[in-house]
Amino acid sequence: MNIDFGLGNTAEYQVALRAAMELGLAAKGTTSPNPPVGAVIVDSSGRVVGRGHTQPVGGPHAEIMALRSAGNTARGGLAVVTLEPCAHTGRTGPCTQALINAGVSQVVFLHSDPNPVASGGAKALQEAGIAVQQVQAPEGAEDALLPWLTATQLGWPHVTLKFAQTLDGFTAATDGTSQWITGETARNHVHEDRARRDAIIIGTGTALADNPSLTARYLDGRLREKQPRRVVIGTRDISAASKLHAAGYEQYGTIDQALSQLWDTGARDVLVEGGASLAYGFLKAGKVDAIQAYLAPVLLGEGRGVVSASLAGTLADAGRWRTAGVRHLGEDVLWLLAQS
Ligand code: AOF
Ligand code: ZN
Q: Structural domains in the chain?
């Protein structure tokens, strides 16, 4: 499909798509089991006249929020959405109909909807005479929908394994000290990321050894507005004196029990934060969809590893990951990996 969007050049809708992706990112962590979608409305002069993102479950979808903020200026305009507009009546009405009613003449979207109940929106819009085009994400833009898309296809939560390590692969020194391997910028990123997940998971070993609170905080220690669910996997009792007790948490005996219960209760995007034996369990079971490694410019020579046991006895058997992105965070580097 080759459509003239009347915007002069494609750079303008790339800007709109970036804006929509940023709106989606702002909603991440607040929408599950629904996707964190972002939407903008652009008028015929290329000006962004409406913005919106998915509201917490049961609330309006991104398109509805963007149309509300655009008002009458949506007529004849372009809607840029990170997910194919829904064609169904679920907890809310179909966004396709709202776009048609608002008189939008063009729709650009990033991802097709893998949810069979809601999909078919592109076709419905075309049948109503609206020009529809699916586009690629702009280079380097963070895509908030990826975990939800994978989870929806799998029928199982998307799992990100996260760790901070020295340049030579250690998460703690031989005496057990691990605070801090990475600098402030990277640690702040971890907290921002926690707030955008549905749950953070640790093993009982880490809960007992580190006594973490697993909250999402600002650098000054204040709690962020959105807190993820805190989940501990393992059968050992967590002491009543643990900070987790105060913050509230859930405990499951096995990885499968935890993920199955998390899925059933709406979690789609979960973060595994340690320790080494839980990381081993998730990796060995093939339950890791993405890795988020924070690499610090420190060498220890000896120390505690990221994973507690062997994943491959010979190099040819070792799983190789695909680099999905690299970011500088102060003196540290965030390495994002996906399954190849
Ligand atoms: C959202 N936000 O911006 C879009 C969604 O039960 P409902 O009516 O809220 O519908 C949820 C489904 O709608 C969701 O699984 C997805 O397939 C589709 N699109 N959902 O929550 C949005 N565009
Ligand atoms: Zn919708």
A: 5-142 (3.40.140.10), 155-339 (3.40.430.10)
Type of residue found at 12: E
Report the alpha-carbon angle 169-170-172, nearest 5: 165
How many Cβ atoms from other residues are within 10 Å of residue 184's Cβ? 13
How many whole angstroms separate alpha carbon 250 and alpha carbon 231? Answer: 5
DSSP letters, 93-146, are --HHHHHHHTT--EEEEEE----TTT--HHHHHHHTT-EEEE-PPPTT---TTH
Find the ligand nearest to 91 CA: 1
C-alpha–C-alpha distance, residues 249 and 134, integer Å: 41
User: What pLDDT shows up at residue 264?
Assistant: 98
Lowest mean pLDDT among 44-48, 208-212, 316-320: 44-48
pLDDT at 9 over 70: no
Q: Could you tell me which residues are annotated as the binding site for Zn(2+)?
A: 61, 86, 95
**Annotation marks residue 184 as catalytic:** no
Residue 218 near residue 226, CB atoms below 8 Å: no
Q: Is 203 exposed, middle or buried (CB count within 10 Å of its CB: 0-12, 13-18, 19+)? A: buried
* Angle of helix 62-70 versus helix 10-27 axis, rounded to 10: 120
Over residues 171-196, the pLDDT tens digits come to: 999 999 999 999 999 999 999 999 99
Task: Fill in the amino acid letter for 39.
Answer: A
Tell me, in angstroms, the distance from the centre of ligand 1 to residue 187's CA.
32
Question: What residues line ligand 1, using a CB cutoff of 6 Å?
Answer: 31, 34-35, 37, 54, 61-62, 83, 85-86, 90-92, 95, 113, 115, 118
- Using CA positions, which residue lies closest to atom 4 of ligand 1? 61
User: What are the Cα distances from residue 63, in Å, to 35, 51, 53, 69?
Assistant: 13, 8, 7, 10
Q: Per the confidence metrics, is the pTM higher than 0.70? A: yes
